[in-house]
């Protein structure tokens, strides 16, 4: 209401990206009411749309808000997945139902229906493995080039494919450390320690994050 520019870009995208990432549907609604771009920064800093973020995190209310605001459901993530495929892969039927009417038909899905899409993503195990390999490679390349934020985002996408992979969590924790984000680094390191108790690398990441928090 004060006239602030709601689509201003920062390291993590726009305010809408941040609200979607934090699961704050209340803030998403306020931003959209003030004409925030539902498809902001498609080719900018964040490399993913707010709709993709909501699909990955399973934020159904945010998904609804973005679709109603006209977000493009056909823009893929860095692994080439449409939001509806991400939702279906995670078994979130309600999210698939929300996205279905606004998603263009995907050529390799023979039965273009809600049930058909869910069945399709469950049947493509080899494709999932290939996507995971691709994600790891892209994240490694981004990290090597000093693009730590992009690497962290790709590691998140990889974790959606392989939720029990402690190494991915450890790697993302390192990305946050390089960005100076001690809080997120510690969260990932602690989750990594719970997933793989006694792993020295997880303990090291946790200790480094705690030291950074005290600075």
TrEMBL record:
Keywords: ANK repeat. InterPro entries: Ankyrin_rpt, Ankyrin_rpt-contain_sf, Cul2-RING_E3_ligase_SR, TPR-like_helical_dom_sf. ANK repeats lie at residues 11-43, 46-78. It comes from the Eukaryota. This is Uncharacterized protein. The lineage of its organism: Eukaryota, Viridiplantae, Streptophyta, Embryophyta, Tracheophyta.
């Amino acid at each position: 209401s004060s006239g602030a520019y709601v689509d201003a870009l920062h390291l993590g995208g726009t305010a809408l990206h941040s609200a979607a990432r934090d699961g704050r549907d209340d803030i998403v609604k306020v931003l959209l009411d003030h004409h925030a771009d539902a498809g902001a920064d498609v080719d900018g800093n964040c490399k993913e749309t707010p709709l993709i973020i909501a699909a990955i995190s399973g934020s159904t209310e945010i998904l609804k808000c973005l679709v109603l605001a006209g977000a493009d459901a056909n823009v893929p993530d860095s692994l080439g997945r449409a939001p509806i495929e991400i939702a279906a892969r995670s078994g979130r039927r309600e999210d698939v139902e929300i996205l279905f009417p606004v998603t263009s038909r995907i050529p390799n899905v023979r039965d273009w229906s809600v049930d058909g899409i869910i069945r399709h993503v469950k049947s493509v195990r080899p494709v999932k493995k290939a996507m995971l390999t691709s994600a790891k490679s892209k994240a490694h390349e981004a990290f090597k080039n000093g693009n730590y934020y992009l690497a962290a985002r790709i590691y998140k996408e990889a974790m959606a494919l392989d939720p029990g992979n402690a190494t991915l969590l450890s790697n993302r924790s390192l990305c946050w450390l390089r960005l100076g984000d001690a809080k997120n680094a510690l969260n990932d390191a602690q989750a990594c320690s719970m997933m793989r108790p006694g792993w020295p690398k997880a303990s090291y990441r946790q200790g480094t994050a705690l030291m950074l928090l005290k600075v």
